[in-house]
Design a protein that fits this description.
Elements (H helix, E strand, L loop, with lengths): L1 E5 L5 H11 L5 E8 L7 E8 L3 H16 L2 E9 L1 E3 L4 E9 L2 H17 L3 E7 L2 E5 L4 H7 L3
Parallel strand pairs: 1-4
Antiparallel strand pairs: 2-6, 3-5, 3-7, 4-6, 7-8
Amino acid sequence: MAVRVQPQPFDYGAECNAFAEAAVDAGAIVTFAGIVRNEGGTLRAMEIEHYPGMTERALSAIEGKARSRWQLSDALIIHRHGPLAPGETIMMVATASRHRADAFAAAAFLMDYLKSRAPFWKKETTASGSTGWVSAKDADEAALKRW
């Protein structure tokens, strides 16, 4: 299990390869990367803020919850903070399990949590200026109800 909250970019391919190499008993590995959407070409930047310590504890707790619900041999969460440009990778989730159903379900659970409940605050800057803090979307909130 690993949770990393960091400002620097990471190599998604290298992270996937390292995760897979360590998952020697897994029959399934699921990975996902979240990318800063360009929002029709109007987004200039996204700023992600968090409280160090609190964020890592919250992400570790949700990772523990995923482990208790599904049979995982490993899990990884990487989430960036600071200024990000369109096209940059914001976050990554990886899960490993003996069976694909557990790996897929746990990854989806973690992604839904990260999208709507993880203690990150996002501010967007568009061509016309700052739009302020981004609120959770109804679809993201609805996705949590399945868990």
